[in-house]
Amino acid sequence: MLGRLKIGLAVLAMVATPALAQRTDISVGMVLEPPNLDPTSGAAAAIREVTYSNIYEGLTRFGPDGSVNPGLAESWDISEDGTVYTFHLRDGVEFHDGTAFTADDVVFTLDRARDEDSTNAQKQLFAAIDSVRAVDEHTVEVTLSQPQGAFLFNMAWGDAVIMSPESVEDNATNPVGTGAFRFVRWVQGDRVELERNPDYWGEAPALERATFRFISDPSAAFAAMMAGDVDAFPNFPAPETLEQFEADPRFEVIVGSTEGETILSMNHENEALSDIRVRQAISHAINRQDIIDGAMFGYGTPIGTHFAPHNPDYLDLTDNSAYDPEAARELLAEAGHEDLTLRLMLPPPTYARRGGEIIAAQLRDVGIETEITNMEWAQWLEQVFSGADFDLTIVSHTEPMDIGIYARPDYYFQYDSAEMQEIMEELDMTSDPEARTELLHEAQRHIADDSVVAFLFQLAKTGVANADIEGLWENAPVPANDLTGVRWTE
Q: Which of 139, 163, 201, 472 holds its CA 20 to 30 A away from the CA of 111?
């Protein structure tokens, strides 16, 4: 009898103990390596793809559906006139180096971001702030110079994450935040490694370790996924291979939308491009669907203005710049630029390199020659984005609701329109939803009518992952690989 009991207990133990423990590590593929790991001092989306929510957190944060949710601020009060925001901060939060998170860190971060010498790539997010005051250790009062309907939205951007003054100087290479994961190492040219933060204030993530691997070549990305060298590639660079993954039960193909308006930017300081007729000609020379089919294998939505088609305030203005090569030739002749040569600078992403070749052929067909320069990301950021030394370039603007860039004369394409600036100033001061919609429509029409850039397509989010992984974002309301809710199901 005793022998049978022992055998029964042994069988129960075998049943109760899984044969294999659930995995708690993940390897995530990325096309671009971030130039640094401080999102408050760099424009590259790759910085946020590694750090957003994982390492750094803001007062508010975006959910996968684009909603604005509490972050380091668990709640807030807004004055009746919409100019004073009182944030109630979470208690017991620590930075990864053990430093306590307090209201002073919020004051430091927001004052640093809006300082005259700030290097924040989205400095305009903080332009409406008049003052920031620590009421007590866990309460911050932010006073705006005027009401700003999008203020809580702005505070959820990766550029508005909270930094500690004790570690901020080293965050570019040794990031210290309050997030669910903490930085382990960065092997430049290869990977960034994170580990679970054991002292995280919120719900502990299921993953214990995460590695971001940088694989820019589409063929290498395909091989890495097939071999299991990476477990997920949320922004997969070889859309032509997605059918193969869909047919393989080991994988799941995840197709969603992004905030990435992909455009052919034009430098308005170039004499020819300062002429609206030349800009209109370039827009009419481009067949958007050819680029979507040829560069993105059908993944992407044509756009005629700088606004996401999934946004309820989107206007379809693609007809304003419909493909019409004959009209393009006539406009160039009228402008006296029938033999025009322009420099086309292309960053590494597939949409830019492949799309650039297609656009160059389409422009050649109407009489515009291009001199193509393929650039690495750091070079593009320095020369094109910061130095405005280019004629044409292709880039996907992945920041949410960023139509306000067209009201910034110092922005890299150097478009200066008093009318657009007035529209955006009024939008900033407007909180009524219907009035905001009207202003957003007005802004979309203005930049479309002025052919500020050539609007191409909304970047699709095409990802591939091991079928046993859940919790990856389907859509990308911001550039992010948020791993806080990711887990293995087997």
A: 201
Q: Where are the domains of the chain?
A: 57-164, 259-460
- List C-alpha distances in Å: 132 to 18, 95, 129, 145, 166: 53, 21, 8, 11, 19
Residue 20 confidence (pLDDT): 62
Q: For residue 217, give the nearest of 32, 378, 397 by alpha carbon.
A: 32
E-strand ranges in 401-442 read none
For strand 487-488 and strand 469-470, is the pairing parallel, antiparallel, or unpaired?
antiparallel
Query: Letter for the amino acid at 320?
Result: N
Alpha-carbon gap, residue 390 to 387, rounded angstroms: 9
Distance CA 300, CA 294 (A): 11
| DSSP annotation of 171 | T
Identify the three-state secondary structure at position 342: strand
pTM over 0.90: no
Interstrand relation of 251-266 and 68-70 (parallel, antiparallel or unpaired): unpaired
Structure token digits, residue 100: 């306590």
CB 472 within 8 A of CB 486: yes
57-164: which CATH number, 3.30.360.10, 3.30.470.20, 3.90.76.10, 3.30.390.10? 3.90.76.10
Closest by alpha carbon to 353, among 395, 300, 410?
A: 395
**Along the chain (490 residues), what's the average pLDDT of each consecutive run of 10 residues?**
46 48 95 95 93 98 91 97 96 97 98 94 93 98 92 95 97 98 98 98 98 96 97 94 96 94 98 98 98 94 95 95 98 96 95 96 98 95 96 94 94 98 91 90 98 97 97 93 96
